[in-house]
Amino acid sequence: MTETPAADDPYLWLEEVTGEAALEWVRAHNEPTVASLTDCDRFRQMRAQTLEVLDTDERIPYVRRRGEFLYNFWKDAQNPKGLWRRTTLESYATDTPDWDVLIDVDALAAAEDENWVWSSVTMLCPDYTRALVSLSRGGADAVVIREFDVDARTWVTDGFVLPENKSRIDWIDHDTIWVGTDFGGQPDGHGAMTSSGYARVTKRWTRGTPLDDAITVFTGDPGDVAVSASHDSTPGFERDYVMRSTDFYNTITYELVDSALVEIEVPTDSRFSVFRNWLLVLTRSPWTVSSPTVSAPAAGDITYDADTLLVFDYDDYLASGRDHTVLFAPDAHTSLEKFAFTRSHLILVKLRDVATEVEVITLGDWTPVPQPGLPDLATISVLDTDPDNSDEAFWTASSFTTPPALLHGDSGAPVTVIKSAPAQYDTSTVSTEQHFATSADGTEIPYFVIRDENVTSGPTLLYGYGGFQVSQTPTYTAVSGRNWISRGGIYVIANIRGGGEYGPLWHTQTQKANRHKVYEDFSAVAKKLVADGLTTPRQLAAQGGSNGGLLMGVMLTRYPELFGAIVCQVPLLDMRRYHLLLAGASWMAEYGDPDNPDEWAYIGEYSPYQHIDADTDYPPILVTTSTRDDRVHPGHARKFVARLEETGHRVSYYENIEGGHGGAADNKQSAFKSALAYEFLWRTIGSV
Question: What mean pLDDT is predicted for residues 402-425?
């Protein structure tokens, strides 16, 4: 086993993202991977099938209401960089909506000779006549921000403009915005960005004035993750907030009242929302609330479990009142995945053993009402509401084998399907089953098996993530369906701890020193698949990206005997230096601080880069990343591959020169990357 201190790392030069030597290394490694995996009919067919899924005009154009219009961002074969466009509800409900194109990103990129990739748009409320558009070069997180006149369909030449950075912005009114960006050196001797690379200073910027003259409202510490400000434009309840994220999961929030910051004293790790005169708090850890009266369950000091949703009167809460109502309480099988407001209702989306349940509650008296029209046995999510103006809600529903449907209607009233995606592969004989594996500490870990009913065993692909409270819920498997399931492969998704499938505790019990539980869970599922006769270690592959890429690195270095192949995408792998690379410092609440000897003691137990062993027989591995990923540094993947090669192991590598953290800047690149992975899998575990 190789245990190299960070100071003695011979591959630090590969952390130079665009260094000439590093990029020469990338090209030299890309060439044999592309040559060996792409020169066959199967790869070309899978790439074409994937691109067809991504580009088809029959996809649902998901929308968000802003005023009288529905807005959509759309990419297809003719518009690979995309169109920002809008239409009316009446037109949208037809088979051929009349789209009004506002920004053609392909035309913009060509005119300006820039590789623009659409990032996001923030529109001015309530008239939506102006927009702050974020564009990145090549798909990075860092963006250029420009003001756009929606009615005139032109860029505002003397408007709000910010150079490339990880900036944070929000409208206050037509002539004022909140802005956090790199303002340069600050009076305290530090820069304006945190060690994680995000803004630590938030300012109020007035139209027509230099950015340097923007008024500072709050400055965080250099070690914070980020500082930002936002404006609530709800009529009659206009408020401004300042948020200071001290780590990835803890945020101190203030309301700005007459130029004074008033702290909203909720648990810093909670998720909370202020709507009109209500304050909703969703706990992430146990919280004791002192109150003389509550509607449930009793008066006095009450400690609520994590994942409990409570509602307070907002003004009364700021005045130290604690009267409240419990809107949701978890149990061993049920967690709260999401909540959303409409004008009259609160929508709760729950997970019960990773299956969706929806409850609609009337605002104010908090009584449930029926929500007719939602399908059974589907993963349901609320996509968009317009709570300031109506009860309108857009919903999406799908399953592993059912294409997405878009439903529309008022909350508490019947909803109807207004858009449906076509089936992308034949699922008439495809089944979905949920099973449970027992992890090392006795915890039951759910996982889904999706396969053709005629396939009893064979090549099996196990996917996992296991971090940051991200749930892996059943969604339509179009690409894996075409490239894996319909070809006779078995697809498995593991709901391992670190996710949020059973609420915050499913995640928090794996943070820092308990990270090993994530890997024990995933390995338990792998062993169960073999024990049940579904596959063999030689025909079992694992796949994951980002934090899931770290999971793959651990599987390779700690559990190599369980797998016949591994696909490791945009990964974290050098946990000795992850906090020094790009946004890595923001994740120390998840993994720990490698510079703290006590915390490195447990991080070092699994950090894949430090645990590559020349004498261990590793399964074939494909490692992919992106040069333009400014969230997870490509140096992780590069150095890991270099160390594997140094110790005599076989490894395939591909790095997209563009693409950001998703690994691809357009649909063609996404299709190429996907087909590359599936071709690798078919050649390794599919040929056995």
Answer: 96
| Tokens (6 digits) for 432 | 């979905």
Any catalytic annotation for residue 546?
A: yes
Q: Which of 546, 586, 652, 670 is catalytic?
A: 546
Q: Which of 579, 633, 649, 661 is catalytic?
A: 661
Is 398 an annotated catalytic residue? no
Pairing of strands 345-352, 540-545: unpaired
Average pLDDT, the chain: 94
Matching residue, tokens 């392909």? 106
pLDDT above 60 (res 298): no
Please report, for the chain, the start and end positions of each structural domain, with discontinuous segments joined by +.
16-52+424-684, 68-125+127-162, 336-388+390-419
pLDDT at 526 over 80: yes
pLDDT of residue 2: 44
User: Regarding the domain with residue range 16-52+424-684, which homologous superfamily does it belong to in the CATH classification?
Assistant: Alpha/Beta hydrolase fold, catalytic domain (3.40.50.1820)
Q: What is the pLDDT of residue 292?
A: 58
How many whole angstroms separate alpha carbon 558 and alpha carbon 608? 8
Burial code (b: 16+ CB inside 10 Å, e: under 16) for 51-63 equals bebbbeeebbbbb
Q: How confident is the model at residue 376 (pLDDT cuts 50, 70, 90)?
A: confident
**In which region does residue 533 sit, left (phi positive, over 0), alpha (psi from -120 to 50) or beta (all else)?**
left
Place of tokens 């996001």: 120
Say if residue 126 is preceded by a cis peptide, omega within 30 of 0: yes
What is the helix (H) or strand (E) element at residue 440, kind and residue range? none
Rounded CA separation 40/170 (Å): 49
